[in-house]
């Protein structure tokens, strides 16, 4: 089934905004080497959600869902990894 052009544009915009929404957090953590203000639970749930979206995309064979959620998984995963690296509380 073909996707209407307007839907494709809206979908592409949504994917790009979702992917880039993690960039400011990544830059802030990297510059400050501090992730204490980041919620570990939130990012664990977020990463898990993107993993589920990828599986869903595979099941329905929707490459835009798969590709955009892989990108989101990588970005949110980067935040999660930096949380563990820069938030080592004794």
From TrEMBL:
InterPro entries assigned: PQ-loop_rpt (IPR006603), SemiSWEET (IPR047662)
Transmembrane segments: 6-26, 38-56, 62-82
Keywords assigned by UniProt, alphabetized: Membrane, Transmembrane, Transmembrane helix
Keyword Zinc-finger attributed: no
Location in or out of the cell: Membrane
Keyword Transmembrane helix in annotation: yes
Superkingdom of the organism of origin: Bacteria
Signal peptide: none
First-listed, main subcellular location of the protein, grouped into a coarse class: membrane
Pfam family, one: PQ-loop
Membrane topology: Multi-pass membrane protein
The protein, known as: SemiSWEET transporter
Biological source species: Caulobacter segnis
